[in-house]
Amino acid sequence: MIEITYYNINSGEIEHSKISNYPGAAPEVIEGLGYVEGIWDPSKYYINESLPIERPNIDPSISKTEVLADGIDEVVITNLPVPATINVKGQIADVDDGELVLTFETPGKYRLTVEAFPHKPWEVTIHAT
User: Fold this and answer.
1) pLDDT tens per residue, range 67-122
2) Quick check: 29 pLDDT over 90?
3) Both 68 and 83 in a single domain?
4) Which end of the chain, N or C, is less surrounded by CB atoms within 10 Å?
5) How many domains does the chain have?
6) Can the peptide bond before residue 118 be classed as cis, meaning omega within 30 degrees of 0?
7) Rounded to an integer, what distance in angstroms lies between the CA atom of residue 32 and that of residue 57?
8) Helix H or strand E segment including 70
Protein backbone atom coordinates (compact mmCIF):
# COMPACT_ATOMS: atom_id res chain seq x y z
CA MET A 1 0.00 0.00 0.00
CA ILE A 2 1.22 3.50 -0.81
CA GLU A 3 -0.10 6.71 0.79
CA ILE A 4 0.66 9.97 -1.01
CA THR A 5 -0.27 13.60 -0.33
CA TYR A 6 -0.13 16.00 -3.29
CA TYR A 7 0.60 19.70 -2.79
CA ASN A 8 0.94 22.89 -4.82
CA ILE A 9 4.68 23.29 -5.51
CA ASN A 10 4.43 27.11 -5.37
CA SER A 11 2.44 27.59 -2.16
CA GLY A 12 2.83 24.29 -0.30
CA GLU A 13 -0.94 24.05 0.06
CA ILE A 14 -2.13 20.45 0.20
CA GLU A 15 -4.43 19.61 -2.70
CA HIS A 16 -5.44 15.99 -2.04
CA SER A 17 -4.26 12.59 -0.81
CA LYS A 18 -4.39 9.16 -2.37
CA ILE A 19 -4.06 5.60 -1.14
CA SER A 20 -3.17 2.79 -3.52
CA ASN A 21 -3.35 -0.88 -2.58
CA TYR A 22 -1.42 -2.01 -5.66
CA PRO A 23 2.02 -3.40 -4.77
CA GLY A 24 4.78 -1.33 -6.31
CA ALA A 25 2.43 1.49 -7.34
CA ALA A 26 4.23 4.74 -8.17
CA PRO A 27 2.92 8.22 -7.36
CA GLU A 28 1.10 9.93 -10.20
CA VAL A 29 2.94 12.86 -11.78
CA ILE A 30 0.62 15.90 -11.94
CA GLU A 31 1.75 19.21 -13.42
CA GLY A 32 2.20 21.90 -10.77
CA LEU A 33 1.97 19.42 -7.88
CA GLY A 34 4.60 17.77 -5.78
CA TYR A 35 4.02 14.85 -3.45
CA VAL A 36 5.16 13.47 -0.11
CA GLU A 37 4.62 10.08 1.45
CA GLY A 38 1.82 9.75 3.97
CA ILE A 39 -1.61 11.23 4.41
CA TRP A 40 -1.44 14.81 5.71
CA ASP A 41 -4.49 16.82 6.81
CA PRO A 42 -4.62 20.12 4.85
CA SER A 43 -6.37 21.88 7.74
CA LYS A 44 -3.34 21.18 9.95
CA TYR A 45 -0.34 20.96 7.59
CA TYR A 46 1.29 22.43 4.52
CA ILE A 47 4.40 21.25 2.69
CA ASN A 48 7.67 23.19 2.70
CA GLU A 49 10.75 21.82 0.91
CA SER A 50 9.08 18.38 0.72
CA LEU A 51 8.44 18.32 4.48
CA PRO A 52 5.03 18.45 6.19
CA ILE A 53 4.95 21.49 8.46
CA GLU A 54 2.24 22.27 11.01
CA ARG A 55 0.24 25.34 9.95
CA PRO A 56 0.72 28.20 12.42
CA ASN A 57 -2.18 29.86 14.22
CA ILE A 58 -3.11 33.47 13.58
CA ASP A 59 -2.72 35.30 16.88
CA PRO A 60 -4.13 38.81 16.45
CA SER A 61 -4.96 41.40 19.08
CA ILE A 62 -8.56 42.63 19.09
CA SER A 63 -9.65 45.76 20.93
CA LYS A 64 -13.16 44.44 21.72
CA THR A 65 -15.89 42.12 20.50
CA GLU A 66 -18.83 44.34 21.47
CA VAL A 67 -19.30 47.63 19.67
CA LEU A 68 -21.97 50.28 19.26
CA ALA A 69 -23.73 50.14 15.88
CA ASP A 70 -23.33 53.87 15.37
CA GLY A 71 -20.80 53.95 12.51
CA ILE A 72 -18.26 55.59 14.85
CA ASP A 73 -17.32 53.08 17.56
CA GLU A 74 -14.38 51.02 16.28
CA VAL A 75 -13.07 47.49 16.59
CA VAL A 76 -9.34 47.44 15.92
CA ILE A 77 -7.60 44.18 15.05
CA THR A 78 -3.80 44.20 14.87
CA ASN A 79 -1.00 41.69 14.47
CA LEU A 80 -2.64 40.12 11.39
CA PRO A 81 -0.43 38.23 8.94
CA VAL A 82 0.48 40.12 5.78
CA PRO A 83 -1.22 39.71 3.42
CA ALA A 84 -4.54 38.52 4.84
CA THR A 85 -8.05 38.20 3.45
CA ILE A 86 -10.96 39.19 5.67
CA ASN A 87 -14.55 38.02 5.24
CA VAL A 88 -17.38 39.73 7.16
CA LYS A 89 -20.83 38.51 6.10
CA GLY A 90 -19.65 37.88 2.55
CA GLN A 91 -17.83 41.20 2.24
CA ILE A 92 -14.20 40.47 1.33
CA ALA A 93 -11.30 42.80 2.09
CA ASP A 94 -7.54 42.42 1.78
CA VAL A 95 -5.26 43.61 4.56
CA ASP A 96 -1.70 44.43 3.58
CA ASP A 97 -0.49 46.29 6.67
CA GLY A 98 -1.44 43.89 9.49
CA GLU A 99 -4.25 46.06 10.88
CA LEU A 100 -8.01 46.21 10.38
CA VAL A 101 -10.39 48.88 11.70
CA LEU A 102 -14.13 48.11 11.59
CA THR A 103 -17.25 50.14 12.34
CA PHE A 104 -20.86 48.95 12.15
CA GLU A 105 -24.04 50.86 11.40
CA THR A 106 -26.49 47.97 11.72
CA PRO A 107 -26.98 46.01 14.96
CA GLY A 108 -26.27 42.29 14.78
CA LYS A 109 -23.76 39.49 15.14
CA TYR A 110 -20.92 39.66 12.65
CA ARG A 111 -18.67 36.65 12.14
CA LEU A 112 -15.28 37.73 10.86
CA THR A 113 -12.93 35.21 9.25
CA VAL A 114 -9.24 35.87 8.56
CA GLU A 115 -7.36 33.73 6.05
CA ALA A 116 -3.64 34.00 5.36
CA PHE A 117 -2.12 30.76 4.09
CA PRO A 118 -0.15 28.93 5.44
CA HIS A 119 -1.77 30.07 8.71
CA LYS A 120 -4.89 28.32 9.94
CA PRO A 121 -8.03 30.45 9.48
CA TRP A 122 -9.06 32.56 12.49
CA GLU A 123 -12.63 33.55 13.40
CA VAL A 124 -14.23 35.92 15.85
CA THR A 125 -17.81 37.08 16.37
CA ILE A 126 -18.43 40.79 16.90
CA HIS A 127 -21.67 41.96 18.49
CA ALA A 128 -22.91 45.36 17.31
CA THR A 129 -25.70 46.85 19.45
Assistant:
1) 999 999 999 999 999 999 999 999 999 999 999 999 999 999 999 999 999 999 99
2) no
3) yes
4) N
5) 2
6) yes
7) 27
8) none
